Amino acid sequence: TWEAANAKNPAFAIERELHGPKSRKREVGIFVAVAAVTWGLGTVIAFNYQRMTSTPVTAALFTARHNDEIKRELGSQLNFTSAFPWISGDISHLKGFVEVEFDVVGSKGIVGRLVLNSRRIGNQSGEWQTVNFYVMLPDGRKIDCKQ
Questions:
Q1: For 15-36, what is each residue's pLDDT tens digit?
Q2: CA-CA-CA-CA torsion for 81, 136, 143, 109, nearest 10 degrees?
Q3: Are 128 and 60 spatial neighbours (Cβ–Cβ below 8 Å)?
Q4: Beta-bridge mates of residue 111
Q5: Checking phi first, is residue 40 left (phi over 0); if not, alpha (psi -120 to 50) or beta?
Q6: In angstroms, rounded to a whole number, what is the distance separating the alpha carbons of residues 121 and 135?
Q7: pTM of the model
C-alpha cells in the first residue's frame, strides 16, 4: 500500500545522503578525440585511395609499365611499392590539372619516383597537355615517359 512505502519504513528505504551523478567529461572527451582521429584518418585514406584508383594514375602506371627504358632500369612488372601507396599531389578534373607523384618498383627491386603533371587546355571539354611525365631514378636520372 501507499502508506507502507513511506520513507520512515525501514523495509523500503534507508535514510542516507545520496552522491551526485558521476561526471563523464573525461570519458566523453576521450571518445570525441578517438572519433575525430578515426574520422580524420579515414578521410585521408579515402582521398588517397581515390587518387590511387583515378584514371590519370592508372594510365600513368600503365604507360610506364610499357616503357622499354624503364623496364631496363627498374625491371619488368612495374607496380606501386606497396598495396596502399601514398599518392602525393592533387587531381582536379573540374579545375583542369593533375599533379601527382608516387613511388614505383620493378622486378629488380629498384624504387623510382613517377611524376605526372598535366593541364587542360581551353574549356571543360578541352584537350589535356602533359607538362611533365617521367620516372626519377635513385641516382637522379629522369626517364621521360611523354613519348
A1: 678 788 888 899 999 999 999 9
A2: -40
A3: no
A4: 105
A5: alpha
A6: 24
A7: 0.76
> In Å, what is the CA distance from 69 to each residue of 20, 57, 91, 106?
75, 20, 27, 12
Could you count the other beta carbons within 10 Å of the beta carbon of residue 135? Answer: 24
What's the Cα-to-Cα distance from 15 to each of 5, 9, 91, rounded to whole Å?
13, 10, 70
